[in-house]
Amino acid sequence: MSNKTEKSEQEWQGCLSPEQYQVMRQHGTERPFSGKYADCKTEGTYVCAGCGEALFSSTTKFDSGTGWPSYFQAINKDAVEETTDNTLGMSRTEVHCQNCGSHLGHVFPDGPQPTGLRYCINSVCLDLKES
Fold first, then answer.
1. What is the mean pLDDT of the chain?
2. Which residue numbers are catalytic?
3. How crowded is the C-beta side of 77, counted as CA atoms within 13 Å?
């Protein structure tokens, strides 16, 4: 595992676009069906846009119909961290990059087998490294 990426909020603002900063550092979300990876079928590895850490493989990506890129598992058990999100009057499981702590999206228990999970991730949080 790599060394954790730590930056000040000013450094994050300098290296992320305004939309990326709002989603990744301020726990926002992009509009459904607006992200560049929502319908992407290209093979490769999706990495964190903030630090380059490998997060998801295209082999676990599926069409959830939600408007956000969805995956049934992370690339490995240590790729993401989860916390409880009680905003918006509901309890959800928030997903963060384990390396830099950036907010990625949420995970839900309504995905396909073999895991039954749906990692619903914002496109602005990802970069695709094609294989």
1. 95
2. 120
3. 1
Tally of structural domains, the chain: 1
Q: Does a cis peptide bond (omega within 30 degrees of 0) precede residue 114?
A: yes
Separation CA 37–CA 78 (nearest Å): 23
Interval 3-30: pLDDT, tens: 789 999 999 999 999 999 999 999 999 9
Whole-angstrom distance, CA of residue 119 vs CA of residue 73: 7
In a domain, 4, yes or no: no
* Residue ranges of E strands in the chain: 44-48, 54-57, 61-62, 70-71, 80-85, 92-97, 103-108, 118-121, 126-130
Q: Please report, for the domain that includes residue 86, its CATH number.
A: 2.170.150.20
Contact 46, 55 (CB under 8 A): yes
